[in-house]
Specification:
The protein is mostly helical. The protein has helices at 2-24, 38-56, 70-83, 85-88, 97-100, 109-112, 118-127, 143-155, 161-170; strands at residues 177-178, 181-182. It has a two-stranded antiparallel ribbon with strand order 1-2.
Length: 183
């Protein structure tokens, strides 16, 4: 039994030394222009998905977020069009240049929103996702504003390109403010 324990300890020490060698030796390619290996991609994706699902379980979705209230959707649209469309696109709207340089690529939410619950979308919007380019909008937006974005994102797959274009043409009549700055 002592031999087995010593062997396990030696293996752990060797693995820790190898990990430190990679970390301090700059041996892992962190360039966004280089795709992750399949194993790294699997590990990061699986971790992200499981964390989002776990964290979202603790979120109470307010009743208004389930509704298709036009004022709520309009507020969500204004925020989405200002902050999200460049990476996540929209019906009839291609993403901006920034998306091309991100690794991993942000999901096209007009497709992906069906796969996420309201609570999951809220958690991601509020807290962001490390090493993906997804910011933590909870630092600059209230929960009420984020729920409006979430309601809009869930509505996004139902919109046609023409409907989205009409919303854009209507513009941001009222605008919105955050801590002294407007979007």
């Amino acid at each position: 039994m002592k031999k087995v324990l010593v062997t396990i300890i030696v293996i752990v020490v060797v693995m820790a030394a190898a990990a430190l060698g990679v970390i301090y030796g700059g041996r892992y390619d962190v360039a966004a222009s280089t795709p992750d290996s399949p194993m790294v991609r699997w590990a990061l994706t699986t971790t992200r998905e499981n964390v989002v699902k776990r964290e979202a379980k603790a979120i109470d979705v307010p009743e208004f977020a389930h509704q298709s209230d036009q004022a709520l959707l309009r507020t969500g649209f204004v925020h989405y069009n200002e902050m999200c469309v460049k990476c996540h696109a929209a019906p009839g709207v291609e993403p901006g240049e920034i998306r091309a340089g991100l690794n991993p690529k942000p999901p096209r939410l007009a497709r992906r929103a069906r796969e996420r619950t309201l609570a999951e979308l809220f958690w991601v919007s509020k807290h962001g996702i490390k090493m993906t380019g997804m910011p933590a909008w909870g630092k600059t937006h209230s929960d009420e504003e984020l729920w409006a974005v979430v309601a809009f994102v869930k509505h996004l797959p139902k919109l046609s390109a023409e409907e989205y274009a009409v919303m854009r043409e209507q513009g941001d009549d009222a605008g919105h403010q955050h801590e002294g700055h407007s979007h």
